[in-house]
Amino acid sequence: MNAIYDRPISANILIVDDTPESLLLLSETLSKQGYKVRGAVKGKMGIKAAQSAPPDLILLDIKMPDINGYEVCQMLKSDPKTQEIPVIFLSALDDVGDKVKGFQLGGADYITKPFQIEEVLARVKNQLLIRQLNKQLLAQSEQLQVQNRQLQQEIIERRKAEAAAEAASQAKSEFVANMSHELRTPLNAILGFTQIMKRELLSSEQLEYLEIINRNSSHLLGLIDDVLELSKIEAGRQVLNESSFDFYAFLDALEEIFQIQAEQKGLYILFQVAPGVPQYIKTDQQKLRCCLINLIGNAIKFTDRGRIDVKISCKESPIKSLNCWFLHLEISDTGCGIDAAEIDNIFCAFSQAKPGRKHLGGAGLGLAIAQRFVQIMGGEITVSSQLNLGTTFKFDIKIISVPGLDFPVETPLKVIGLQPDREAYRILIVDDNKDNRLLLVKLLEPIGFDVREADNGRDAVTQWSAFRPHLIWMDTRMPLMGGFEAAREIRSQEKELDSELCESNSRTVIIALTASVFEEKRAAALAAGFDDFISKPFVPEVIFETMGKYLGVRYIYQNLPVTTKGCRKVNIFNEESEAFLQKNMAEMPLSWVAELEQAAKNLNEEGVQESIEQIPESNHLFAEALKDLLRDFRLDIIVKITQSFPVKH
Ligand code: ADP
Predict the structure, then answer these.
(1) CA 221 from chain center: how many Å?
(2) In Å, how far from its chain's centre is CA 584?
(3) Residue 316: per-residue pLDDT
(4) pLDDT digits (tens, 9 = 90+) for 551-572
(5) Which among 226, 308, 367, 383 is the best mutation to test ligand 1's pocket, defined by most ligand atoms within 8 Å of the CB?
(6) Which one of 416, 546, 600, 617 is separated from 373 by 20 to 30 angstroms, measured CA to CA?
(7) What torsion, rounded to 10 degrees, do the Cα atoms 201, 204, 209, 212 define?
(8) CA 232 – CA 220 distance, rounded (Å)
(9) Strands, E, within 213-275: which ranges?
(10) How far apart are the C-alpha atoms of 475 and 483, rounded to whole Å?
(11) pTM of this prediction?
(12) How confident is the model at residue 96 (pLDDT cuts 50, 70, 90)?
């Protein structure tokens, strides 16, 4: 038997029956079972008794003198006070129609007279059990409803909080964008004019001061950029921005920067590239550069003695057909290390470990940004460190190896004039900031461009119709009329003119020049009629390049030494670098080659160094390549090259 069923149920039972014997038998039997029993011999009495103290169950005879059981049941079911009480009909009527009628009126069960007392007891117990379970269900469902209401309330409150947080984050992003504009605009002038002044003939002292201004402004710009990067990451606006580039040249440029910094601190820095790392790769160049700058910069910052090693290796990923590789990068130093108690927090924004707090100039953002960027590039960054011994950061990123055919040899070129083969290009510079306007004027006028200025969008539109510039450099935020509106206005006037003259007039190229940081503005700029979008602060090369791209401007360049593609690649000694060394060595006197050979054979590093110092400045790349070999202890290679020359004595 079922456990619930076996448990005794205490209950009040009302018996309504006009037959005294039947009433007596039932009440005695039920009382013996522990039930509290009341009796009524007439229908109306039964209703009253039920209303005054509702029982848990009613046994109801059908045939009664005043009103019959069906009517009693009907009345009980129409009264909210009694409608839930289960009713079991008792009757000698055993026609199916009678029973069905009983159920239709709301009866819970039907017992035919003469009844077996065991059957009555079992049916009574059943109904009481059902009623008890029903009550429990009802209580639980009420409780659930209360909880449901609470949950709904919580959801409403959470949604409100989320909306408020979203609005606050939006406001923060706007604020950051505005601040970035405010902070970058003056920096643009500072950095730009230092670049222009560097073109003047200056004393070495003045050049040094300029260098200091330049370095400090760049540092400030770096800090602002870090804060902005982080806010972009938080706003979910950082996405993978892949491009193909020469990875060796990329590493060379980085090594060049950090070589100087390391030397200034008396540190030794070595970039080691494992064989097989592809030269031309596709990934997010800016993010990769930012990660390496942060990690190598930190390694130098937190190391006072010893060395920094930057190791790059590669393994092919399973998707071979797509030329997909995993690039593994490792930056280790022999610096102060990080305390085990602090190591878990160093990737959190604005958090610095002890040595970091002592250092001026850090904001604790570099690693947070690097970690997020590595994740965006499909990898993870890890750190291991031992206090006072050093630290190693490692990360992998996904890259695609691309063919090198599309990469021209890059030469450092300085624009000094325009090819005299055509009329002067008319350029309109629109910026409300006088310094920034002047910066572009000073950059473009000496080269030979015909330059005019406007300090707001409205003036730009007026000047455009009179001056008909080939290209407009247009700031975006300006009083009276902003750059977007001005670009739209110019485009619509161009259209009108074209339809009036039934021909397509030459269209002005309009380039947005803005200190705003958010990439999605690019789409808005293009939609407004801009041809392109350049961020401030800019470097002169970008300005010249853009004008070359859109106007086909052909420049005269100052001759600068030409870098041979990939020849400075550290740790890679291949046919290309051998040919480079041989070609350059052939230009040196044979006696010099002999001395170098002797020094290299004797493992006399100082002697090799002395020979390198005799190489003329005009051939500094050759000197650099030899220095790399010396630094990597590859004197054997130097001997090999020198030996390929005729007998020198
Ligand atoms: P910042 O360098 O601006 O302080 P980072 O986010 O780049 O911020 O680094 C966070 C902290 O991690 C640093 O302040 C420093 O305490 C610790 N740290 C990072 N790199 C190194 C390292 N190579 N050696 C020792 N400590 C480091």
Answers:
(1) 21
(2) 47
(3) 67
(4) 888 888 765 444 333 433 444 5
(5) 367
(6) 546
(7) 110
(8) 18
(9) 243-246, 268-273
(10) 6
(11) 0.49
(12) confident
